[in-house]
Each structure stands twice: as C-alpha cells, then as structure tokens.
Amino acid sequence: MEIFEAIFNRRSIRKFKPDPVPEDILYKILDAGRWAPSACNRQLWEFVIVKEHKTKKRIANEACFGQKFLIEAPCIIVVFYDDRKERREEVGPRKHDSIQSAAAAIQNMLLSAYSMGIGSLWVCGIKKMLKLNDILSAPRFLRPIAIVAFGYPKQKPLPPARRPLESFIHFEKFRKLKETYPDSSFPQDWKLSELAVFRSKICWFGGVIGPDSILEKCSMDSKIYNKLMDRYKTLYRSDFRVLDIMPYAGGFLAGILRLSKNPKNIYAFELHEGSIRFIKENLKIFKLPEPNFILNNEDHILISIKNVDIVTCFFRLERVPQPESLIYEMNKSLNIGGRILFASELMGFIDYIKVLFKLNPNIHRSPNWNIGPIKRMTKTKVNKLFKERGFKIISQQTIKENILRKRFIKQILGVEPIVLLTIWEKVREIEEE
Q: Which of 63, 80, 81, 427 could form a disulfide with 142 if both were Cys (CB 3.0 to 4.6 A apart)?
C-alpha cells in the first residue's frame, strides 16, 4: 500500500468486530511505532498492551469518561513516555519532547495498522491521566500520553471535511491569521457560518450516537428524552408535515422517525452539509429511513419550507446567534394552528453569575465544549420571544432529569439544567423582520 493511500483513507474507528488482532500483526504495528523519530533518538516510550475485558473496563470508566469503544476494542495500547530525562531548563514554553516523540510513534502505528486492514482510534480524551498509572502499575515518572484502540473495523466512516490548504499555509512569515472559530462560549459572539462549521466538525469528533449517547444533555433512555417523544406522539398524525430544527447528531430525529408512519413527510433543517452526512450515518445505525434534508445556504437562518404542521425544536434556541430569527423562521414555515414542540435549558445560578460579572470562558473550557456555544434564557424571556412572534402557549412545564437530593446542587448551579417544555401554537402571521 502506498503511503498516501494510507494517509488519505485512514479513518478513526469507534466500532470494532470482536475478532482479536493476530499477534504477528500487533507486533508489526508496534515495530512501526519503534521506528518513529524521537527527541535525540532517546526512544523513551513505553507501550502497555491491554486485552483483558476487566482492565479495559477500568480504564474506560475510571480514567476516560466511560468511553465504551475502549471496552469493545479487542486490544488497546496505552502509550507512556519517560519525561524525566528531557531538558526542562529552557526559557519560555516547554518543548514537550515527550508528547512529540510519542505522537510520532502513534501516527506510525495508525498508518501501519490501516495498511494491514486493522482499524484504530487515537484517544486523547483522558480525564484522569495518573489513574492510568495506577491501573497499569506504571511508575509515576512515566507520563501517559494517549490510548490507541485496535481491531477489525465494524464501520467505514465517510471522510470528514478538511480545511483548505490555502487557509493555513503561510509563506516566509505570517499573513493575517483567520480565526477558525470564536474563542467564546456565547453564541452571540459567533457568526452563523462559524457555528455551522464548528457543529459539523465536532459531530464527527464526537463519534456515533447510540441509546445512551446522542451528543446531547440527555440520552435516549432519559426522562427528558422520553417525555419529549411522548409529547410528540400526542401531536403527530400520519398526514402531518413535520420539521425538526438542527438535528445536530440525529438523536432526537431518530426518535421522531421511529414514531412517524410516513417518513416522506419528515423534514430536517441543518446549517452544514457535514452535519447532514453525519446524521445520515447515524440513522443507518438504527436502520431508519432518511428524512428530507433542508440545508441553510445563507449567512442568516432561512428555512425554505412552508405548510408545516409540527416543528420540533429541542435545545436549539439557546444555541444560535439570533434566537429571534429562528422563531421568525419557524413561524413562516408553520400553518396557522400549527404547533411547535419546544424544549430549552433554563438559566441556572452559574448563568446568572456569568451575566452579572461578564464571564465568558473559552468554548473548550466550558461544559459544552462538544456541542457548541450556549446562552440559556429565563422562562420569562423565552415566553416573550415567542408571544411577540405570533405564538400562544398550549401547555408548559418544567422538567428535572433527577430529583434526588444529590442532584439538587447540580441543578441549582445549572450543571444539570431544568428543562422548559412548551407546546406553542401559531395564531398569526408576522411581518418580515
């Protein structure tokens, strides 16, 4: 296999067949890692091969956010590096010799694995690095760098979008640097085009959806998810045209399609074609038909569909730069008497503090790093926005996912926000804004 074929066609695999990786192939992969460049050729890496289910489960649950693909992969390799022997006396930022050297070895391993038909996944999402030392009895001077999962692939992901070369290549010196996306956790600081690109990329990063993971605040077996689907059933009729707003990864859309008797009447509005590709892949997992996709082609929200009977908008209003525009577009799409099944996270105590002291953390330092910027609103604010744009309340309630006392503080702080569930009815057309 030519090197460029491996580079261009290798994909991150998150679903593996149970078949073990043959020992001879595994050693070829490790040998490829051994021939990677390292700082001063010190080769201070250490590789721990883990195949036992019990150990993989401990690694996933105790150190890595419970990422199931680490358990399901037939083999994982934990990469350590001895950084005691690296120079640290230089002035300024550290050179990170250990990370660079180990990363070079990992890339060699990924490409060699692909050339032999083995899927792989480079896992940097490690919550408790030193927990890996404890689980694997590694001395503390060894620095955990990453985990790599290996196995025969059970999926063939489509190629994700890549930045065009001209967007990041500079000659001789830096030209004006174009930001890839804003350094803000508030949607009002983002352009719609920036949000669209971010959402499409982060979806691919986040992996596939499943019953317990839909890249959202709630899973498919949660109280909130089931409440939303129950309400949808009370509104739905087989002859109704239904529009789902920005399905993101497709978790809620999958529930809607399961309950819908006529998929040809289901529409999904998204901001980026990358997100649509991702949703299509996820719907295949559940063996569900595809809806009719509507792609936004403007720098502002423009939903090009009319005569809709039901709009579902789950946790989207608080995530767009101009929520008023989204409500306006939903009004334009709906028939008079049409309904919006709406869910939104309400402001918690932490949100009030952020507003009061003008705190705006980096998006990757916020709890919402994997689903994009968010600015929650009060119930009063949400109701005002809808009523001003031609809607009246049919029913409204707040839902808490878990009312146990141990969750109370999280809900007060907004870590596990209270959800506002509303059914809105369109009572009048509104003039163009």
A: 80
Which of 343 and 284 is assigned the larger pLDDT?
343
Query: What pLDDT is attached to residue 358?
Result: 75
Q: Which residue has the tokens 């968010």?
A: 374
| Residue with token string 């979806």 | 203
Instruction: Write the Ramachandran bin of 137: left for phi over 0, alpha for psi from -120 to 50, otherwise beta.
Output: left
Q: Give me the residue spans of the domains in the chain.
A: 3-151, 187-426
pLDDT at 406: 46
230-242 pLDDT, tens per residue? Answer: 999 999 999 999 9
CA 67 from chain centre, in angstroms, equals 13
Phi, psi for residue 334 in degrees, rounded to 5 = -85, 150
Q: Report CA 249 to chain centroid distance, whole Å.
A: 7
Is the pLDDT assigned to residue 368 strictly greater than 50? yes
Residue with token string 């971010």:
198
Please choose, from the candidates 2, 9, 40, 35, the residue with its C-alpha nearest in 3D space to the C-alpha of residue 104.
35
Average pLDDT, the chain: 89
**Interstrand relation of 242-245 and 266-270 (parallel, antiparallel or unpaired):** parallel
Please state which of the ranges 156-170, 217-231, 262-276 shows the lowest mean pLDDT: 156-170
Burial environment of residue 293 by CB neighbours within 10 A (0 to 12, 13 to 18, 19 or more): middle
Q: In the Cβ-directed half-sphere of 79, how many Cα atoms lie within 13 Å?
A: 28
Strand partners for 148: 77, 122
Give the CATH number of domain 187-426; options: 3.40.50.720, 3.40.50.150, 3.30.460.10, 3.10.129.10: 3.40.50.150
Query: Which residues on adjacent β-strands are paired with residue 343?
Result: 314, 421
Same fold: 3-151 with 187-426: no
Could you give the CA distance from residue 86 to residue 250 in angstroms, rounded to a whole number? Answer: 46
CA end-to-end distance (rounded Å), the chain: 57
Q: What CA–CA distance (Å, rounded) separates 189 from 226?
A: 33
Write down the pTM of the prediction: 0.83
Fold of the domain built from segment(s) 3-151: NADH Oxidase (3.40.109)
